[in-house]
Amino acid sequence: MGEKSRIIHYPNNRAKPAISSDIYGDDAYEDDFEAWEPLVEFHEKKDYAGLVEYCKHRAERFPNDLYAQFYLGEAYVLNGEYEKAIKFLSRHHEKHPWNTDFQHVILDALFALGKNENDFDWAEKPVVLRMSDDVLDACYHFLKPKRKSRSVLDIHTNFITKDYLLFTEDDLFKALTEDERFIVENVDQGVMAQVRVVRKKDK
User: In this structure, are strands 150-151 and 194-197 parallel, antiparallel, or unpaired?
Assistant: First the structure.
């Protein structure tokens, strides 16, 4: 089996590009608010089959709205239709290789199938981050110039805005508490614990 998928349920915490009529289509403006409430309803009820049908209708109605295509791909994943999600979003990824939403849904589907990022022919390959020394080094360089501590959740979010993560806030919390370069305050607060780097005065 491959690595565990970290499918994020909608509304999710992926950073989305600003809506632009040049990129997302003129329909994106008028349809975004209109679509929000039904999407939330389907998610709250966990009616993913219904979500697929709703998103399919929107994707057909607004073919130039990249959000509509993304939502359908994500709905396929949530409904367990992983191969269909990959097939559907493959052509959109080829046209818009810069679109991280498309990349991440394809990755969700790949990992859910027990595969990894190397099992897809990318037009532009996304960065997949696993918990590693490089991630902890990045945390150190992020926190070193900061005068105030930051929560584990804040630090984790800093990674989310850039890449596809294969580690959770809890994974990061555990790694930071085990690394002697960091001081984790109020560890009983879990991912809300405050983190800072060890300085000379602490030794």
Answer: antiparallel
